[in-house]
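Forwarding the complex inputs:
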Amino acid sequence: MNVTLRVWRQASNHDKGRMVAYGVEDISSDMSFLEVLDVLNERLTMADEDPIAFDHDCREGICGTCGVVINGIAHGPESATTTCQLHMRSFNDGDVIDVEPWRAQPFPAIKDLVVDRTSFDRIIQAGGYISVPTGSAPDANTVLVSKTHNEHAFDAAVCVGCGACVAACPNGSAMLFEGAKITHLGMLAQGQPERNSRALSMIAQHDDEGFGACTQIGECTAVCPKGIQLDVISRFDHDVLSALLHGDR
Amino acid sequence: MAVSGLIMMLFLLAHMYGNLKIFSGRAAFDSYAHHLRTIGEPFLPYAGALWFIRVVLLASVAVHIYAAITLWRRARAATAGRGGSRYESRKGRGGVQRTYASFTMRWGGVVIALFIVYHLLHLTSNTIHPGGASASPYVRLVNGFGLWWVVLSYTIALLALGFHIRHGFWSAVADLGANTSVTRRRHLNIAATTIAIVSTAGLLMPPFAVLFGWVG
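Prediction (whole assembly, two chains):
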């Protein structure tokens, strides 16, 4: 199959950037989207042109590094699928495919499709952890965790921090990312001592980074490649309200 | 936004109930309007309870609009002023699962705010009286809704209100922590749609009843 990729090209953060169309021929429908970018980059390199810069790592949907907005939808048309796991059988011969980076002020552009997501790192550093005293390990099974909480926490823990939620949110909010971490840690016994301070620190850092506020539109969960559900945001809201009401910090 | 919105919604449901007294005839409706001003007498002064409600509503509206502006500014800052349409691609502009209601919260809110001013001038302060003024609330109402363009203006505003409530109720309860599972999300959305439809229909019944001659 042959497709036309309209790719966002931006030389640096200071460059205004623009969409450039490239025709890519002889694509196998079994290729992943990133493999198509590789094929295009090979051709550009051979022609002494600047190849397209894009983030990628594991290429198996688990690391959260890759991520582009394909035809206006973060990670493309398939649900619960990362860009690296999106295959060309999801497109038709002759399609024109728009490829853009995540767009949000807290994700400053670096080059082409690469954006700076260290704002996510700072949010996690602000409170997305548990504090564990050093010393000998506790005896096994002294801390009991119910199976339901265990599973729910794990469903939230699978967030890979890719940033698709921010890319899709009309408000530019990172609440799904925050909520996933809050829910993951807040559902487990080990997360209880710092539950209130975690909620307040993380929301403060989120707001400081310049992410927008959540208005429960739900685009985030619709594009999340790991299927994080919207209830994580409600749980986050509950923890913030609880912390404010009880004066715990 | 959630708390102020829910306070205003509670008022709206009570107001809708009161409006439906139009179907009990002029005496019942005018009596209801008079008794709104004598709630709690002599413990409270004349119209005391009503003024308390008005102050609470005014405060709610102020908080609601202030919060809306704050959220709007933050969203603008986070998306370089372009919001949901910040991508070059013209495809996917409608999002993956966005409801029309969530799209139109801000402009819908503006329409509702302007409508409330118009509505208060019409039926509360009797400043504008299309169809004819009267000391009787029932007669004022019937005079106004006998005109097709008054009914049209109320209909447009109430449809905007219906959409606003559809997303507003859902996001209010979700923001307050109620959305705790996938099933719960579905149920809350059904509840939001139901409340929106019931409110809109219930509030539209008096204007259309007058226009079609079932009342007055």
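The two ends of chain B are 39 Å apart (CA to CA).
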